[in-house]
Amino acid sequence: MPEKTIAKKASTIIPFKATYYNPAVVKDIPSVVCPPYDVINKAQQEYFQKKSPYNFSNVLLTQVQNYEELGKRFKQWISDGVLVDDDKESLYLYEQCFTSAGKSYTRFGFLTLLCMDKDDVIFPHEYTLSAPKEDRKKIIKEVEANLSPIFVVVPKPLTIFARVYATYRKKPPFLDFKDFEGSRNRVWKIQDTKTLDALRGEIEKNKLVIADGHHRFEVAYDYYKNNKGKFDNLNYLLAYVTDSQAGLLILPTHRVVSIALDDDTFFKKLDTYFFIQKVTQKELERRLKEKSVFSLGIYRAKTFYYLKLKKTSSLKNIPDIVIYKKLDTYLFNHLVLSLFSVNEQIAFTHDIEEAKKLASGDKVAFILRPIPLPDVFSIANKGHRLPQKSTYFYPKLLSGIVVRRFQKEGR
Which residues of 389-410 are buried (b: 16+ CB within 10 A; e: fewer)? Predict the structure, then answer.
């Protein structure tokens, strides 16, 4: 967590004049939006960057580490009118309608500017990595903008959120389209003072948890510290703020690891802590929904296994177990991953089918359960962090809906 400084009388959120695709120039919004930078692999990057010369991935990601060229392209889009500025300060209500495991969900929240230096307001919940932060630092320096929002959650339902959503969803949206995954995305501008004040007032009363975008938060905070006075409201960053609602879905994040051991040695190590049972994929998915202190699945050599902890006494010597005893990703690191010598970088996926494809040769897929939302809130509110890649909030927020450019006085 960045160092805390007290910002007197600063609002937690403020409206802003967003920069977005000019509807007079860009007619096909699905061709220009893309996922956040950190979930786009190389093949997907090439796919999105070829969809349109104005696809947002062309300013979000660089293929040859040419950050200066990326910044020039972003500013050229503005100069050419591909991207335009809103004429009035707004909050932007953003709705996503999607399906997961055959079920339909709706999630909504508000795109806004969020204060980074208000004391005890924002809590991260995961540790970050240095390489992605260095990449984002170079980009923010060149584009002088928040290109993608961080994802922030109020850990309880807010009546005002539901009320505003119920009102605006009946109105014609500013944007309405289906994305590359088939999810429907709608955006409304909120500009009336009464509604803005009501939303701001309710958010002021609550603490917030960063659900996604920890690297972006830390990079934006670092940029603010090093560029104070250069731009207006630099202690604010682009954020999507939602509350605890039915559509706030967390998917599990499975691990695929290269482990060069024969079956006997591999399972003998695991037998120290776990009951091990060969199962079908369907049976594994059912068993992982059962309540237990810690269980997981394994996919190895085209076979699924279900593992369940033998004794809770095995948890005694794990550091900070009182804090993290309900977190499967933490227990996995200490009871499973620590048993093996990992030969290369871990691959992460939230999809079992993709995990199966990745688990070839000596690679093993460890199938984990999703972390319950209340546990994420509980850990974060106490000032603790989860292991990296513990949560996967689905769906991701699209990049390219709105951008926040840093502006000097007189804009």
Answer: bbbbbbbbbbbbbbbbbbbeee
Distances in Å between the Cα of 115 and the Cα atoms of 5, 148, 185, 280, 385 are: 11, 16, 26, 49, 21
Size (the chain), residues: 411
Q: Could you give the C-alpha distances from 170 to 32, 89, 159, in angstroms and in order?
A: 26, 22, 18
- pLDDT per residue as tens digits for the range 304-316: 999 999 999 999 8
Amino acid found at 235: N
Q: What is the pTM assigned to this prediction?
A: 0.89
Type of residue at 76? Q
End-to-end CA distance of the chain: 32
Q: What is d(CA 243, CA 151) in angstroms, rounded to the nearest whole number?
A: 11
Is residue 248 within 8 Å of residue 240, measured between CB atoms?
no
User: Which of the residue ranges 124-128, 139-143, 274-278, 397-401 would you say has the lowest mean pLDDT?
Assistant: 124-128
Provide the CA 66 distance to its chain's centre, in angstroms.
25
Checking if the pLDDT of 7 tops 60, the result is no
